[in-house]
Amino acid sequence: MSTQSLDAHNEADHPPAVALRGTMPEEQMLYDRLIDAIIDKRLRPGQHLNEVKLAAAYNVPRSRIRRVLERLRDESVVEFQLNRGAFVSRPTVKEAIDVFEARRHLDVAIAEMVCRRATQADIVTLRHHVGRQHQVIHTGGAEINRVGADFHELLAEMSGNEVIRRMLTVLMRRVSLIQSLYERSNSICLVHDHETLIDKIEAGDVEGARNEALRHCEHIEAALDFTERRRLEIDIYELP
User: Fold this and answer.
1) Which domains does the chain carry?
2) What is the pTM of this model?
3) What is the pLDDT of residues 146-160, one digit of tens each?
4) What is the DSSP secondary-structure string of 123-161?
């Protein structure tokens, strides 16, 4: 078989990988900025995402904006409404309860895995991150929610389980939407819970780490009002 024929044969057996929707460099940048805006509560549930304005602001074709929005739709962060366009999702009460149930199970599993696998270098990294959380709280930085979410994604990375890490990352997007929609008042990063969890991990206390992760979720949920009345209250923003 000739080299040319062999190359053609290999290409047929192994077709080139297709880029995931919304992951080209310019698209990834826009995706990251939209996610950050949602976590920082600069974009709120129900807010309109105007494709024309986004395309002009980032100087990219509208088709690429649509790819990013479709990626966010696949992650249940954005929804498309017929003849109206794309909007930041407004999770229903049932969706919110389901998401937090899933988060409780994931957080507990991650805490257990990290407790069993964390190195001393990991502990140093976690404590450094908590220091960053204190700094943001002290300065009143707008990124307080994002820094808190980053802590949980860091834990998921340290679990050593890539599937769980990806699940947690996507789930935290929806958690941010739920907190933005259902919180009774502006929530704060529960940094002291994070510190206690690190103490349990450093001590190798698996049961203690599991319990602390569960308590942390309960503290967050206690600040939320999972009722239809809350969901249907008049929005603080106007839809175009």
Assistant:
1) 17-88 (1.10.10.10), 93-229 (1.20.120.530)
2) 0.80
3) 888 999 999 999 999
4) HHHHHHHHHHHHHHHHHT-TTHHHHHHHHHHHHHHHTT-
